[in-house]
Model the fold of this input.
Amino acid sequence: FHTDGLYVKTDAPPRIVFEFFIIQVMRLDEDV
Done:
């Protein structure tokens, strides 16, 4: 699982990975 130069272990539960991805997106939106 890779996004914007950020690596996440693929062995993590899909839900956790999804929530983490949403948090990253929200943080990016706040920086804009």
Summary: The two ends are 24 Å apart (CA to CA). Residues 2-31 form one domain. The chain has a mean pLDDT of 74.
